Amino acid sequence: MTESPAHPDLWPAPLATGAVDATVTVPGSKSVTNRALVLAALAAEPGWLRRPLRSRDTVLMADALRAMGVGIEEGVGPDGTGEAWRVIPAQLHGPATVDVGNAGTVMRFLPPVAALADGPVRFDGDPRSYERPLHGVIDALRALGARIDDNERGALPLTVHGAGALDGGPVEVDASSSSQFVSALLLSGPRFNQGVEVRHTGPTLPSLPHIRMTVEMLRAAGAQVDTPESGGEPNVWRVSPSALLGRDLVIEPDLSNAAPFLAAALITGGRVTVTDWPERTTQPGDSLREIFTAMGGRCELTEAGLTFTGTGRITGIDADLHEVGELTPVIAAVAALADSESVLRGIAHLRLHETDRLAALAKEINELGGDVTETEDGLHIRPRPLHGGVFHTYEDHRLATAAAVLGLVVDGVRVENVATTAKTLPDFPGLWTGMLGSVAGATAAPRS
Ligand SMILES: O=C(O)C1=C[C@@H](OP(=O)(O)O)[C@@H](O)[C@H](O)C1
Ligand SMILES: C=C(OP(=O)(O)O)C(=O)O
């Protein structure tokens, strides 16, 4: 965790005056939008993304694909309702320059795409992107036939010298630091001459639902994918070479970004409905139903969406969050307000996310009077009475939304650089105050 830059913007997190009662429409999923963009760019025909997320991470992805020659037109959908992006694939070109910002999906999913371009593609990004692991993708691409100029750290910045095609074939990768290494190689796999067979060799593999998301979206685009779950070897995924279909895809709401809103119901003893909650999904955020129920609330999935109701009681949990690590910051905030201790396990890899999330959460909650200690693979949270103060966010969107959750019930929490939420959530402050301004049955942010 590097020191947060002094930021002039301190957002006074609004205090809830009573039980929250609102209906909220959260924007589209970052993980689904960025996979859909990559798959649409690699397809053999144009496709549509409807209700895409428009946030820093997805605009970076779209701009990067455009820089390589892909057409992405932003407008309304084929039926005239709602925002939709038309993606028109093209021969991928270099020279091109890609700004990855601090988006794991952009820095990991695009080097394999760049290997298919007909010239050099240079990748650069925010200072933190230099520290996030990328070696798994770089080493695997080299083994599959790509030429890459990187540095002694095996990280950004780097240049992929696209040769117009890649041999592909079998490759080993240690993806214990990020599941995105596996997803990256699979997403471009259909376009490699021999497809790709990815064998994960490391001790652990985080975020399995995100790998399932990759596999399901590849299959929906017509790819043939063999997985451990479909009777293949453990830790081996195989994608056959094939053309990809252009799809007309409606992007699901981002269920991980639903976390602070559901948490608002839990900690104020209120009720929040998140609209368009999918009946079935690979998004890790779906686990919030179980996790927040275990922490004291109850939920109901109806046609209106997912309604989560707090009971006025918040219980600590002992949970392994290895598969759903990105939910940790908001869960940690709720745990700091509970009536018993929590242990959050299996999340050592969060030290390599947007910031060192374990260090940042412990430090910032403790600055408000909390008692959080880092363990080898997670956090031990002992609830204490909290007080107001500045909550630093380290340019991490999920630290900022976690701080907003605390600020609902702790007077005087000021969130440094709340604008960092724009990585995955456009206008989080507006959505948040909209939720608080709502009365029973009102809509915080109606979907247009
Ligand atoms: O593939 C994806 O869309 C993601 C995978 C996960 O990454 P890690 O496996 O690096 O944790 C997750 O934390 C990230 O927010 C999104
Ligand atoms: C880890 C995250 O993002 P990224 O896609 O940058 O890895 C996250 O959104 O929690």
TrEMBL record:
Keywords: Amino-acid biosynthesis, Aromatic amino acid biosynthesis, Cytoplasm, Transferase. PROSITE patterns: EPSP_SYNTHASE_1 (PS00104), EPSP_SYNTHASE_2 (PS00885). 3-phosphoshikimate binds at residues 30-31, 35, 178-180, 207, 326, 353. InterPro entries: Enolpyruvate_Tfrase_dom (IPR001986), Enolpyruvate_Tfrase_sf (IPR036968), EPSP_synthase (IPR006264), EPSP_synthase_CS (IPR023193), RNA3'P_cycl/enolpyr_Trfase_a/b (IPR013792). It is found in: Cytoplasm. Gene3D superfamilies: Enolpyruvate transferase domain (3.65.10.10). Its main location: cytoplasm. Phosphoenolpyruvate binds at residues 30, 104, 132, 180, 357, 398, 423. The active site is at residue 326. It catalyses: 3-phosphoshikimate + phosphoenolpyruvate = 5-O-(1-carboxyvinyl)-3-phosphoshikimate + phosphate. The keyword tRNA processing does not apply. Catalyzes the transfer of the enolpyruvyl moiety of phosphoenolpyruvate (PEP) to the 5-hydroxyl of shikimate-3-phosphate (S3P) to produce enolpyruvyl shikimate-3-phosphate and inorganic phosphate. Belongs to the EPSP synthase family. This is 3-phosphoshikimate 1-carboxyvinyltransferase. It comes from Streptomyces luteosporeus. The lineage of its organism: Bacteria, Bacillati, Actinomycetota, Actinomycetes, Kitasatosporales.
